[in-house]
Design a protein that fits this description.
By secondary structure, this protein is mainly α. Helices cover 67% and strands 0% of the residues. It contains 17 helices and no strands. Helix 1 packs across helix 2, helix 4 runs antiparallel to helix 5 and helix 7 runs antiparallel to helix 8. The radius of gyration is 19 Å and the shape is globular.
Length: 324
């Protein structure tokens, strides 16, 4: 299994450009974001990473993005950006609850924003047929929509045709396969093992291995009575199982020993860090945190509380200075 492109290096200058584009977008200026995305049309890894960040900023400027698209109809970068922004707004409307716990207002807002996002994202696939990133964003919409199991699978199939190692698409596929969404623990575990076995050493998709065990642990916290669930929290038994630790350690070594330049590498290292922080393996925790970048990833740390606070606690546990 090979990817069409590695996507380039997310170096300091690129991170700064992305940060500045996000700030400008929140202030109503979409030009820097549009220019960044225009430079990634043949680099899906960079494009997926950038639109993931810019979509959050664009969620605050839906009206202005819509007006800009009216001035430039059919622009693939604007279609993708507005679709991602609408998807981010739909996610915010949904909140953190699983589908069965959503209120009527949440469902209505999520459905309305999600439908509009789908329209723009499908238009983006028509404007740039080789681009896998609109399909990746469509997967996120399908994940959180009840009864849309077939939709995310179809979107993932389209991603796989174009860029099978796309990081966020693979993370979303794993999430879709969990019991709490559209699959089962057996399916998501098998998927993580299969994808990890297929990627080259150093690729961030290896983070599916610790993520799979984290998902299984979180799923276990949703089962049984209160006493049973508290016991699972206190013992961390699911994460500390011998097979789980062996699998995660093997994947960790593959990521650390042969690093590949990739914009999502910091996110992958932070996923490993979440696992090692939970099982209190400070040596491996430190190794991943040293490579995790300065921007704190909300997922999967958010499962366990405030992700910024947990990141600081993890660095302290690993004997590292706080990030400025």
């Amino acid at each position: 299994m090979t990817s069409r492109t590695t996507g380039g290096t997310s170096d300091k200058a690129e991170r700064a450009a992305l940060s500045n584009a996000g700030k400008a977008l929140r202030a109503g200026d979409a030009a820097p974001a549009r220019a960044l995305l225009a430079g990634t049309r043949s680099q899906p890894d960079r494009r997926e990473h950038q639109v993931g960040e810019l979509g959050k900023a664009g969620a605050e400027q839906l009206e202005s993005l819509g007006g800009l698209l009216e001035e430039h109809p059919g622009d693939p970068d604007l279609l993708l950006l507005l679709g991602a922004a609408l998807a981010a707004a739909a996610g915010k409307a949904r909140g953190s609850a699983v589908a069965s716990a959503l209120s009527g207002n949440q469902v209505r807002d999520m459905f309305s924003l999600g439908q509009e996002a789908r329209q723009h994202l499908h238009a983006a696939t028509e404007a740039a047929p080789e681009d896998p990133v609109p399909w990746s964003v469509l997967m996120r919409l399908a994940q959180f929509a009840p009864g849309h199991d077939g939709e995310w699978r179809e979107a993932f199939a389209e991603v796989t045709k174009r860029a099978p190692l796309l990081y966020r698409a693979n993370v979303t596929a794993l999430a879709c396969l969990t019991r709490k969404w559209h699959g089962s623990e057996a399916e998501q575990v098998a998927f993580a093992r299969e994808r990890a076995a297929a990627v080259p050493d150093g690729h961030p998709v290896l983070a599916l291995v610790p993520l799979s065990h984290i998902e299984s642990y979180v799923d276990g916290l949703m089962r049984g009575n209160a006493v049973v669930r508290i016991g699972r929290v206190l013992t961390q038994r699911r994460l500390k199982k011998r097979r789980a630790k062996a699998e995660v350690n093997a994947a960790s070594e593959r990521l650390l020993n042969s690093p590949l330049p990739h914009p999502s590498a910091p996110d992958a290292h932070q996923t490993f860090a979440v696992y090692y922080h939970r099982v209190r393996d400070t040596e491996r925790l430190r190794a991943h945190l040293e490579r995790s970048g300065t921007k704190v990833a909300e997922f999967p740390a958010g499962y366990f509380g405030d992700h910024v606070k947990l990141f600081a606690e993890a660095r302290a546990a690993a004997g590292l200075a706080p990030k400025s």
